Amino acid sequence: MTGTPVLQLDGVAVRYPGRGFRKAPTTVIEDVSFEVGHAETVALVGESGSGKTTIGKAVLGLTPVSAGRVLLDGRDITHLTGRARRLLSSDLQAIFQNPYGSLNPALPVGRTLAEPLLTGSPLPRQEVHDRIADLLRRVGLPEDAADRFPAQFSGGQRQRIAIARAVARQPRIIICDEPTSALDVTTQATALELLTELHNTLGCAYLFITHDLAVVKEFAARTLVLQHGRIVEEGPSIGVCDRPQHAYTRRLVAAAPVPDPHLQRKRRQQRTEAEATAG
Ligand SMILES: Nc1ncnc2c1ncn2[C@@H]1O[C@H](COP(=O)(O)OP(=O)(O)OP(=O)(O)O)[C@@H](O)[C@H]1O
């Protein structure tokens, strides 16, 4: 990778305090280090509970980091809070799984999209208006969507609104935490196409958190594999998915559903073999 990475994690650990009398803290993430380069798409995969969302939250300042550093364009943002953290929003954005919960139901869509444009160094009123129209067009929604409320849209359309909000300030990187998991298969494909198109036109980097390996190969240039809060394998997505090196990655790949029944059978067999090897 050339130049300063957009995002860098250096030995990051997250520990949650133990519950109850004298309960030891739980280490959820341990010594996690990786980089995301300019306009790079990096996937973070792992089983449920492996710590993917916790890494996303650590980057976004939504959970305290117990050790290590998070750098954005070379700047240490690990412990930034309050206004300093909010000012990062022009460079660091997020899209979450649930388009129902991530939009303020009381705000018309136009106000939701205006928020990031008015944070930090606010844009002039007319420019905000024009940018909102442009954002709605980019994500395939009609201009009058600005006057409507989230409840008046379908799940896929709401995720488009969330995507429009995330790209409004043309951030350096977007943390996408399972952004398509709550959508049906067709809407999922459309949302991924939209994210790819925006990546190609706007040039933002993505850290794409998912448990769906089929998405990984299509969408991300590089993949990080997380097991019990540690990265166990890392490399170009095609290599990680087609020639996994670590036994855990092999199990993940073998467990991923595939549309071809013959291939599915072969995968099942590979999974049994991988489980036998892992003991
Ligand atoms: N606030 C918290 N307090 C204590 N433990 C937590 C907290 N949040 C998450 N955990 C634990 O941290 C571990 C990792 O959770 P995390 O949500 O990061 O996993 P994940 O890989 O994103 O899982 P999924 O794919 O199911 O979303 C889990 O064991 C979870 O129970």
UniProtKB/TrEMBL annotation:
It comes from the Bacteria. The keyword Nucleotide-binding applies. Residues 7-253 form the ABC transporter domain. It holds the Pfam family ABC_tran. GO terms for molecular function: ATP binding. Residues 259-279 are annotated as: Disordered. Keywords: ATP-binding, Nucleotide-binding, Transport. Residues 270-279 have a biased composition (Basic and acidic residues). Belongs to the ABC transporter superfamily. This is ATP-binding cassette domain-containing protein. It comes from Streptomyces justiciae.
